[in-house]
Amino acid sequence: MPRRSTDTREEIRAVARELFAANGFEQTSLRQIAERLDITKAALYYHFPSKDDLLADLAQPMIEDLDAFLADVADAGTGDARDVLERYLALCHRNRSLLQGMLRDPAALARLDVLTALLYRRLEVDRALVGSDRPADRVRAIIAFGGLQDCVVLMGDEPLANYGDAALAAALRALQRP
């Protein structure tokens, strides 16, 4: 039975996410993705005209996730730092393969303006949490959010339940004022 077009597109995304996270964007070829799926390169090009288009497509859910998160934080305010950090940790965990890939090939993401879009949103997240542009407050927010993001990347496929509480506790400590 032939594959449905939507199934093939999602399968391409899944394999690309896995290979980009494991090998990096530049080191992964469309041929490798096609071979892994047992489809032709032409079939892959039907869904994604270029590797850059595929990467931009993979990054879009995280950008949308960050936008929704920022809207929620703006609506709810920053009263409960633990809740904000917990939701950010979950967001990072959902998007960990993209974050892992960013470490391997930041230039590829920068070329597509994906890195710029993600960094801009991260700065907005930092500001939303502390509600201040004071350098000391921003540094604490950067360390809190950056630490959570780094935990997700470096813990790899470790279940969030195994390290989430410790990561949140450390992030909350980073936010404490001296």
Q: Can you offer a commentary on this structure?
A:
This protein starts with a helix and ends with a helix. It has a single domain, classed as Tetracycline Repressor, domain 2 (Orthogonal Bundle), CATH 1.10.357.10. The mean pLDDT is 86. The longest helix is centred in the middle third of the chain and has 26 residues, at 51-76. It is built from ten helices and no strands. The radius of gyration is 18 Å and the shape is elongated. It is mainly α and 178 residues long. The protein has helices spanning 5-23, 30-37, 41-47, 51-76, 81-94, 96-104, 106-111, 114-130, 135-155, 164-175.
Summed up:
This protein has 178 residues and is mainly α. 78% of the residues lie in helices and 0% in strands. The chain has helices at residues 5-23, 30-37, 41-47, 51-76, 81-94, 96-104, 106-111, 114-130, 135-155, 164-175.
What's the layout of helices and strands?
Blueprint: H1 5-23, H2 30-37, H3 41-47, H4 51-76, H5 81-94, H6 96-104, H7 106-111, H8 114-130, H9 135-155, H10 164-175
Helix pairs in contact: 1-2, 1-6, 4-5, 4-8, 5-9, 5-10, 6-9, 8-9, 9-10
